[in-house]
Design brief:
Layout: H1 2-11, H2 16-30, H3 38-48, H4 55-68, H5 71-83, H6 89-105, H7 108-113, H8 115-125, H9 130-141, H10 151-160, H11 164-170, H12 172-193, H13 203-228, H14 234-252, H15 257-271, H16 277-295, H17 301-334, H18 337-348, H19 352-367, H20 372-390, H21 394-408, H22 416-425, H23 429-436, H24 440-452, H25 454-464
Helix pairs in contact: 1-2, 2-17, 3-17, 4-16, 4-17, 5-6, 5-13, 6-8, 6-9, 6-12, 6-15, 8-9, 9-22, 9-23, 10-20, 10-21, 11-25, 12-24, 13-14, 13-15, 15-16, 17-20, 18-20, 19-20, 19-21, 20-21, 21-24, 22-23
Length: 465
Amino acid sequence: MLKLIFLGLMGTGLPVAVAMAGSALLFIMLSDSTLPPFVVIHRMVSGIDSFPLLAVPFFILAGNLMNNAGITNRIYNYALALVGWLKGGLGHVNVVGSVVFAGMSGTAIADAAGLGTIEIKAMKDHGYDTEFAVGVTAASATLGPIIPPSLPFVIYGMMANVSVGALFLAGILPGVLMAVLMMLTVAWFAHRNGWGGDIRFEWPRVLKALSETLVVIAWPTALWVLITKFGLPAQATVVAGLVLLFGMDRVFRFQAVLPIMTPVLLIGGMTTGLFTPTEGAIAACIWAMVLGFAWYRTLTWKMFVKVCLDTVETTSTVLLIVAAASIFGWMLTATGVTAAISQWVLGFTRDPWVFLLLANLLMLFVGCFLEPTAAITILVPILVPICQQLGIDLVHFGLVMVLNLMIGLLHPPMGMVLFVLARVAKLSVERTTMAILPWLVPLLGSLVVITYFPKLVLWLPKMFY
């Protein structure tokens, strides 16, 4: 009955959060349950009364600060210098730019709306088909929640009682795999259509971009060696390293080294024990403010107030969904729905490979109808107990779940990335959907590899945790 009420409310066009909370309330009032209606409010409040959830508004604020401080242009120019000379240049720039921006925004929608606006306009100006520009932008936007930091990982970690730091580390290699497969797809389009590069190959420009990449790799590696191998105090070493990094940026005038350091500082701080994921989100905000106000001086107080108001609006939406999904998920458990589903699945199969196949199909379907935050909050109580009984690692399963739901963002009827890009590119939803279809090949290929080769996901988390 609960599920029927929920589907009925959804069919009337109500927002997902209202439909979930409303269905729980109507179920209590219409059924023979002894639960008082006030339990809905109580469970909604307790659902968001969580310390890890404090990371959500701060990660949203950090992404908004980076997006409004001119950082996206720096990322685009860095990616252009690095790979813009390849055949299908701006397609590769789109993917590489999304990899970098994913380390700051944590959401697919921010990637599509922020960097995607610049990329689609540039690709159209260089003569690329609008459909190709939209397709590669949509596919690369899915990297946002896979490469750390990631809002869906924070919510999944809270719901499944899994280390958020381990989830962040687990997303790095799969994110690289997805980027490589997308760039191979761009190369295939370029070969089929006879596209060339969009800028001339010039050694000074390429070497400067490569030097920035080398600094991004060498700087945290050197700090890690000094702290772990030579026993230097972590705080003092990091501060000295940051002073050196800012000095190098002033001398060599890097395009994107400091923005790219956002995920490096986050993961490094969590793995060395300097801060928790929630404290790391606050550190990311401070880092973004330092870059915007003091270093690049592209952020004004007027812009900062607007960014804060936008953050409050987005955070309210996300936490309302979490609260509503919390009561809905609790009702599913209280009415025995989750136990019945678990028994049915375990009666059908006890093979982890078969279960992962069924779970993928379910999550791909759910992702087309529910916003990722709501889907995670509902699916975790149903699927995680089955994973525990079958011996499936919850960090691995978290990555599989998030990737499925990100792919769902590209499809109607509820695909938010689809609608954002349709508005940015001024295309109909139908044409945007058709433009995205070829890019499901690298995305689903990545999903298969990530699902059935868990060592790729778990290698880094097991090394540090």
